[in-house]
Structures are given as structure tokens and as C-alpha cells.
Amino acid sequence: MLPAEPRKIIHLDMDAFYASVEQRDDPALRGRPVAVGGSRERGVVAAASYEARHYGVRSAMPAATARRLCPELVFVSPRFDVYKEVSGQIRAIMAEYTPLIEPVALDEAYLDVTHNLPGIPHATRIAREIRAKILARTQLTASAGISYNKFLAKLASDQRKPNGQFVIPPGQGLAFVEKLAVGQFHGIGPATAARLHALGIFTGADLRAQPEALLRQHFGKAGGYYHAIAHAEDHRPVQPDRLRKSVGAETTFAHDLHELPDLLAALLPVAAKVWAYCQRSGQSGRTLTLKVKYANFQQITRSRTQLTAVPDEAALLRLGQELLTAQFPLPQGVRLLGLSLSGLDAETAGAGGQLTLF
After folding, report:
1. Is 108 annotated in the active site?
2. 233-268: pLDDT as tens digits
3. Within its chain, how far is the Cα of 169 from the centroid?
4. Which of 102, 108, 129, 233 is catalytic?
């Protein structure tokens, strides 16, 4: 049920941000498949240009896998100081329209423009103006989704990438959601999608047909969220400068893993993704938590807290691998591994040494 005055929410997402910055600054990279990250055997892709994505190269992918998919791939070392500077320019443009800006990452943010500074009545026009100013001032393109809540705006921003925008107006949210596969819903990953499929739930329409009590029975508190978004409902406000208390990443395997070497290697891209956020935000934390989900969906977590913040990616990975090794022998195969770092504190970031992603 929509509020009396629907909000006007924009989800702005830069197009292949890190890779696009590198292509902008080095003309020799334009039109070529580019990966930002480590080119070594144990390196990880932090970002990929659209030319690289054409070959299946994705962020958090091991460098060796990316090279197999795209032998012509050009690896570029990340320059987070440059990305932060450009992100500041983009944030300044957004601030010309609203103080209600919720950054999700350096390249992504939600804006509430219901009552905006220039007094523009249409959010679609604001999105066009912001995207045009970003292009003029940074030579980079952005995509935007516009709707009456954050969930729908996020979905909409994926519809016209790159360099486009899409609107889901009030009254059309349900029709849009019901056609989507549940795996396309923001907040539903591969493992959850597989569990929904096992229950005979494949689309938004299927999900909406389920009683909330049933979804809570199978998914706990998240079941209430799934019930709400299936009805195109999301009442979360845009929260300016929200502070994150933890950051995590996880990966679900196509086939259950049993051997320690395979599982230790699988933690590499997970640790890289967690540390990439720490690098971008200038934060780190003292408590690392390992999440293991077995083939029967039983889940365990194991944590370790240090006296000082985790100083770099290598230390984060080492702690995660130690926690994992301590679980052997395993009772059964593993379908999912995750790592999360909590107690984030900007003051402690890098206290143990220079932060480095690769």
C-alpha cells in the first residue's frame, strides 16, 4: 500500500566505475577489455570494463580465471585515491539537488528528491540533470533508477545500463516485480534463490502468493522482507551518511566443496571483496567472522577478535583461513563460505600499516 504522497527515490550507479576511470585517464585502454586488480595468479578482479564483461569477467573473480576467459584482458593496478576524488565530485553534484544522500559505495548512492533544493517536480528530470553534470565534469557515465522506494529504484537502475535511466512509477511496482525471477531481486542471492526454487517459488508472482508466515518459517526474519518486496513494498528511508557496523561477503559454490585446499582458495575472492570495502571507506575492524553453510543448509559461524584492527588483506585472509582450517574434518560438503569484518572504525584503519587491496 502506497503512502499518501509517494517518495521520489533515485538510485544512481556509475557504469563500471573503476575501469571507466582508468579508460578515461589512459586513452590506450579505451575499447579494450580492462580489469582493475591484481594480475598475479592469486590476484582478484576488483572491477571489469564492459568490454571485459562481454567475456564473462566479473568483480571478485580470481585473476587466473579472468585470463582464461579473456586472454586479451589488460590488468591495471587500482588507484583508490583517484576513485575517491572522483566520487567526491559526484557527491558534490548530488548535493546540489538534495541533502538526503545515502552512499552505498564510492560509485553508488540513493537520493531522496521528494522535496529537492531546486524545486523540480519530476525525479526523472533530476536524474537526467545529475547524469549530464557527471558526464560534463568527470567524462564518466552513470545509470539511474527512479521509483517510489529504494528496492524498486535499485531494480530500475539495472534496466538501462550503461548510460541510461528507467522509472517505475507509483501504481506499476507490483506489475514490474511479479514478472521478475526471484534471483533478480536485490537481497536474494543464489543460495536463497535455490531454496525458493525448492519451494516452487520462481517469480515475483510466485513469491507474492506465499503467506508471510510460511516465508518466515523457512527464512526467519528475512521472510518478512521477502514478503514485503514481493508486494513492491519497502519503507526504508534514505539515510544520509549512515555508518556501517560490519561488512561482509560470501560465495555459493556450483558444487559442494570437501577438500581443504579448495576451500582455502575459495576464500581468496571473498576476502578481497571485504577488504575492497575497507580500502574504499578507510575503515577496518577487529573481529573477523567466518560463515560456513553445509550441503544440508546447516550453518555455523566462527569469530576471532584481535587487539588491533586487521591491517591489510593478507592478514584478513590469513585469519579467515585459520578459522576455516580449525573446522576440519568437516561433517559434510560445503555449499557456501562467507567472511565479515565487524567493529568498523575509521580511526583504526591502516593503524597496522598501509592499506593495500592487492
Report:
1. yes
2. 999 999 886 656 778 888 888 788 999 988 998 899
3. 25
4. 108
